[in-house]
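seq:
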Amino acid sequence: MNVKLICLPHAGGSASRYHRWRALLPAHLDVVPLELNGRGDRVSEPLYASFAEALDDLTHRTLPLLATGHPFVLFGHSMGAYLALELERRLESLGLQARHLYLSGRGSPRYRDVLGAPVSALDDARLLSELAAFGGLPASLAEHDLMSTLFLPVIRADFRLLEDGAATADETVPVRSPLTVLNGEDDDTANAVCHADWLRISSSVVDFRMYSGGHFFIDENLHSITQLIAART
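struct:
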């Protein structure tokens, strides 16, 4: 039976980044990029007003994928990893469980303020500067003013989402699924990986993997990461 690989994007990003994974993974892995409101093919839909709204929407769109009893795994990068962990908590409360969680670009299961201040306190120039400082601004955006302008409302909404999640979600609830935590060796947001926090968050096995690169290390290590997922799924 095929396994659904449900993928969640980073802050400011689109699930379309996962489309190319299909050519790198074996046929039994069905890559399902889960798009968020306000981007990609859902660009006309309003950005989420709260973390609860986002989690409800993701749950509503995930459940039909699992209705036939297909096994599934979750992958998320950065904000996507935070969302994937919360989505797994919700699914487990409904009697479902991922075969594996791959959580990328996060040093801790808790939200860490990487901007130095609430996003609402930062003007556009400061926000772009803070994102660039920790490697959270893709080069394609940093080099094009128009792209940065289009990107800013989405990234602001996403950081508000993360801040709301930290304030309203119980980040200590453990999951039953095994975890693989992937990070970049030069990622300042994850260079002090909180092993103890991750070990507490799963009642199963937790594996830690480090790769060369910064916050977007998955781009330069895509083949080895997809090979890891294929071997374990």
